[in-house]
Amino acid sequence: MSAAQQDLKIDGRRLWDSLMALARIGATPAGGVNRQALTDADRQARAQFTQWCEAAGCRVRTDAIGNLIARLPGQNDDLPAVMMGSHLDSQPTGGKFDGAYGVMAGLEVLRAIRESGRIPPRAVELAAWTNEEGTRFAPSMMGSAVYAGLLPLEEALAVVDADGVTVAEALRQAGVSPSGEDPGLPMAYFEAHIEQGPVLEAEGKPIGVVTAAQGQCWFRVSFQGQAAHAGSTPMNMRADALAAAARVVTALNEIGKAHAPGCATAGRMVVTPNSPNVIPGSVVLSAEMRHPDDAVRSAMESLFHEAVAAAAREHSVQVRTDKILEQPAAPFAAACMQAIRHSARQRQYPCLDIVSGAAHDAVALSRIVPSGMIFVPCAGGISHNEAESAEPDDLAAGCQVLCDSVLAFCHGDAAGR
Amino acid sequence: MSAAQQDLKIDGRRLWDSLMALARIGATPAGGVNRQALTDADRQARAQFTQWCEAAGCRVRTDAIGNLIARLPGQNDDLPAVMMGSHLDSQPTGGKFDGAYGVMAGLEVLRAIRESGRIPPRAVELAAWTNEEGTRFAPSMMGSAVYAGLLPLEEALAVVDADGVTVAEALRQAGVSPSGEDPGLPMAYFEAHIEQGPVLEAEGKPIGVVTAAQGQCWFRVSFQGQAAHAGSTPMNMRADALAAAARVVTALNEIGKAHAPGCATAGRMVVTPNSPNVIPGSVVLSAEMRHPDDAVRSAMESLFHEAVAAAAREHSVQVRTDKILEQPAAPFAAACMQAIRHSARQRQYPCLDIVSGAAHDAVALSRIVPSGMIFVPCAGGISHNEAESAEPDDLAAGCQVLCDSVLAFCHGDAAGR
Asked: Which residues of A touch B290 (CB under 8 A)?
């Protein structure tokens, strides 16, 4: 990185102000944000984004799924751009930073470049992906998945919300119409995001260099035993569905612990009839496993199936296991990680390699272009919650690293070129 | 037992017909019975009981909590009677046999004695205890507990149902008024009942000699951990309330298995927030332990508390344990057991010593007079269920043993005198 590039400092205060201004759109009384995809609040946020980007010298185009892509021209606009991005939509009881941070950090980078008066060698783009959260319209990461060719456009447009409104109708109602242009894929993609986990805060590191998004698989495990009187049914004549399910919960926990940095979780359990003096007749349990290495996750899955079979045998219950979701791991590009790590070291921000447990738009992008993610700490690791909180200094540090990484790729200093 | 007494045979067909006639009062479309305490259906059943008993030569008295006690006079009516009994009320979706069998078996004994033309040396009584089930008015076994002096009358009369109706009002509405007489406590009490468990059926024995009702204690265990993202919270930074609760479920199961004929059960579990990709933040679990020996149950309880503490430590969660019920074990009288066993052997009914896991009116009576219980098999051990079912031959065998045991005590052949 040249000294001239290193001089380009983002404005942490302006970034914070933009975040707070955006958080007023869809603000909830409890201090959070309800800005679900393609609602009126989301429409307002999209309009604000467009206005800010245009004021920073960008053209903003819209694609057929409603992704907004702001483009700051470069010296040679025929070269592939360097893209930043994240999402403006939120959970129903979401926070101010999930998604919003990545978009506002990108905006701050565009503003800083614009203000410097220097025109980068190639264009810099900033995407606000449609419907990352997936709460109104499933699946999540809809816009970035369509952009990356992972989800057919027609399929996405036909998805309906709880009121029967399709994505296509919701786009029309939000006044979204595709602008038609398409300058092609970028050379690389960077996304800044709050960690949504407790590691960076606990380790005292403002910057996480995300090495991969974990692959994951979700199962529904249904145990069928025999409901019976808890006083008059001897232990050796029971078919106790909860006793069997408890074995699987414990096994999952042990599988997770034995395969760090992967994890394994039983999050949901429904017991029937769920009465203190009745032996549980049936239990439905959720089980999910995640790991950045798909081969390791596959081994975890085998151990899980063995534990389920052993629990069923031990407690004389029938069991059925349905896989309801599987996503492969997404390792991020070495060149992107190097650029992020290099910036953090130059700026003397303590940093840490970290795996993303959650999925992000960058996972979709990583399937088609070299991609990288920058994590910053959030208080207590709490996210998808109105109490979501992050420190202005950490947010500024992540934004500075985003800026440096983007410029490194623009100037061709990065190994990825 | 003298040869003459042994000749007194009950009529199994008449017993079955009485049971079926009684089951029409409060019959449900699914073949069960809904005859909750002091409802209109219960009132009808009480009237039918009174009519049948009077036709069998009995006087029927009513006490202040509405217990109906039919009395067939003996040669010396100043001697304490031998009492039989059970209950006419049912669960909301109850079966034809729970309670009803013990009352109709007693009625059949009265009819058989009456028809024989022989007057027993002392009176024989048959009680229909008020509100054994406790579903409309808690607690269960209300009438027998008041009779035995375990529950103050005024306290019982003041209990309200879900509509705010007191027991006192419900008794008035059902036309119940105390008849005032009280010939004093009986010399012994016998109750016939379906097992409500699977043991007799599995062992092929029509008669269970109940040696004790298990003592029991119930706990509510509340685990408080930290809800967090299942993908981004490393295993070693979790406070997973469900993982902790699962350890306790497994420990309970092992405690139960190690202390036969006692048992231990986790029947109810409520997980919050109960979402597949969120680490459970809190769990409320029910835990109950039963054993016929209170000292052994106390040892089971200690192991349970150790397991709760270990689970909380292992998973970094807070835990609170509340004891919400405790009942001491009720061993039945040796003399009553001997009379039951003797009859079964004389009649060549295979029999088995068995512990009652459930509580019954006989438990209350056992606190004040020598008491015994006779169990007969029920299909699949299923009870508190409209599908409750029992074989006519088994019901007749249990009734015959009841008759023989009562007469043995009447004649002073039994060791209990």
From this structure: 230-231
